[in-house]
Amino acid sequence: MNVYIESLGCFKNKADTEKFVNKLIQHDIAIVRDPAASNIIIINTCGFIKPAVEESIERILELSKFKEKGAKLVAFGCMIERYKHEIKHLIPELDFTTGINSFEKLINYLLINKEKNLHNILSKKDAYIITNLPYYSYVKIADGCNNRCSYCMIPFIKGELKSVKLDNVKRSVKNLINMGVKEINIVAQDITKYGIDIYGEYKLCSLLDAILNIDGDFYIRLLYLNPDGIENNLLDLIKNSSKIIKYLDIPIQHASDKILKMMNRKIDSISLFKLFEKIRHNMPDLFLRTTAIVGFPSENNYDFNKLLEFINTFSPEWAGFFRYYPEEGTPSYNFKGRINKKIVDERLNILEIAQINNINQRFKKLIGTNIKVFIEKPLEKPVNNANYTYSGRSLLQAPEIDGKCYIKVDNNIAINNFGPYNALISDFKYPDIFVTLN
Ligand code: SF4
After folding, report:
1. 308 C-alpha vs ligand 1 centroid, how far in Å?
2. What is the helix (H) or strand (E) element at residue 87, kind and residue range?
3. Is 176 within a domain?
4. Ligand 1: distance of its center to the CA of 256 in Å?
5. Is 149 in the pocket of ligand 1 (CB under 6 A)?
6. What spacing in Å lies between the alpha carbon of 145 and ligand 1's midpoint?
7. 142 Cβ inside 6 Å of ligand 1
8. 145 CB less than 6 Å from ligand 1?
9. Do 48 and 161 fall into the same domain?
10. 37-54, pLDDT tens digit by residue?
11. 121 falls in which pLDDT band (50, 70, 90)?
12. What range does the domain containing 158 cover?
């Protein structure tokens, strides 16, 4: 039996998919890259906001064409959890569904079908992990969230925070390092709250200490740190460790006190400004990523300008600006003062232009400096000019969201693994970085 699997949505979903794929391999279930070669097609869905739900439904329907050839269609994850009572009626094409935290049910379903021995096209040796290139991986240290931001469905879908025990996380990281993974991306809905549910206190620093004690040549990237949970000891640890990438993903969501309060964020604008000042002052080389929601109910020009001021003051190198979506079932769904789409579009446009200007300025100063890059593949057609012949990613870029790296390689340098290699920054065209190996 061959299984084709696709992961939609965020990197936390991807971490789940990776874990699931590993379980399939343990059960001798072959994974294939081509849905046409599969007996069972599985989609890990996203149900975070309406567009993500629509994308999940569209993709399920697209893949349903393979049912004509006898494949079964299975979906799990957030979208299924969110609509568990309606899903059979909503998408009758699905043969089996299960929400979150129910890998076992899904594995049992697959094993029953495996016994039926549907046409065996490929064997276990053809199975390989399909979610990422093998040099990087995601480790989810907790699921669920207690923060209860007023616009967010996640706590309703995933429930309260559930941390993975420290020893288990350490074991997963160690296994990945032994498999040759060089970059471990630590993810959860909010990694700063790690451990409070099982240890009664925040344990992210202890977890990082334990991971940093593992022997090996690897890097750690910290994704999704809510600003209210970032403490001085965590910043010190990041600053002093050569294995923690100087890159932090800190979603601010807004910078106006009125909106932060309505969002039920646990930080005010003064503390937010102080935190970012501290980070910029103590680690001037660190790259920041943030996200913000635009057009939250009642957001006026004053509120928007506070957000713009924040972006212009701290110039996060990478940023995602998202339109507010009223999600039925969340507290903010009933808030008055929905913002007209045209105004939201204008505000998004202003932020995006400001952000691109900021990062262009930043990279102007970085040209000629050193960075580490992973080389992923030779380019079919050289980019920019004939000298950039490989594509990859630098440590300043998180996988899949911050653009690519185009790499010029001297003939004398042998490229026989992903790296990382030392390189000089030679050019920047938003969002891509051009480098020369040295
Ligand atoms: S921190 Fe807020 S936005 Fe993020 S998952 Fe938790 S409730 Fe949702």
Report:
1. 22
2. helix 87-90
3. yes
4. 18
5. yes
6. 6
7. no
8. yes
9. no
10. 888 999 999 988 888 999
11. very low
12. 136-354
Kindly state the average pLDDT of the residues 255-271.
Answer: 98
Residue nearest atom 1 of ligand 1, based on CA coordinates: 147
- Range scoring the smallest mean pLDDT among 75-79, 110-114, 383-387: 383-387
- The whole-angstrom separation of Cα 198 and Cα 276 is 29
Is residue 365 assigned to a domain? no
Domain check: are 114 and 253 in the same one?
Answer: no
CA separation (Å) from 250 to 5, 89, 321, 339, 342? 30, 39, 13, 25, 28
Residues 29 and 146 in one domain: no
Pick the closest to residue 293 from 334, 317, 327, 270 (CA basis): 327
Q: Which atom of ligand 1 is nearest to the CA of 155?
A: 7
CATH number of the domain where residue 418 is located: 2.40.50.140
Stretch 362-377: mean pLDDT: 94
pLDDT of 120 strictly over 50: no
User: Is there a single domain that holds both residue 7 and residue 142?
Assistant: no
Instruction: Tell which wins on pLDDT, 190 or 12.
Output: 190
Residue 149 belongs to domain with CATH number: 3.80.30.20
* Tally of structural domains, the chain: 3
Q: What is the pTM of this model?
A: 0.89
At residue 396, what is the residue type? L
In degrees, rounded to 5, the angle at the alpha carbon of residue 420 between the alpha carbons of residues 175 and 26 is: 25
The whole-number average pLDDT for the span 245-265 is 98
Cα 73 to middle of ligand 1, angstroms: 30
End-of-domain residue from the set 99, 126, 153: 126
User: What Å distances lie between residue 400 and 137, 227, 397, 432, CA to CA?
Assistant: 12, 23, 8, 12
Q: Peptide bond preceding 35: is omega within 30 degrees of 0, i.e. cis?
A: no
The two tokens of residue 372 are 């580490």
410, part of any domain: yes
Q: How far is the CA of 287 from the centre of ligand 1 (A)?
A: 22
Q: Are residues 14 and 160 in the same domain?
A: no
378 and 262, same structural domain?
A: no
> Among 354, 388, 403, where does a domain finish?
354
Nearest-atom index, ligand 1, CA of 265: 2
Answer yes or no: is 363 within a domain: no
Shared domain check, 75 and 49 = yes
Ligand 1 pocket, residue 253 CB under 6 Å: no
State the average pLDDT over residues 297-302.
Answer: 98
Distance CA 54, CA 107 (A): 26
Higher pLDDT, 258 or 158: 258
Q: What's the rounded Cα separation, in Å, for the pair 273 and 114?
A: 56
Say yes or no: 229 and 350 in one domain. yes
Question: Which of 166-170, 366-370, 400-404, 408-412 shows the lowest per-residue confidence on average (mean pLDDT)?
Answer: 408-412
Protein residue with least CA distance to atom 4, ligand 1: 189
Query: What is the average pLDDT across 281-286?
Result: 96
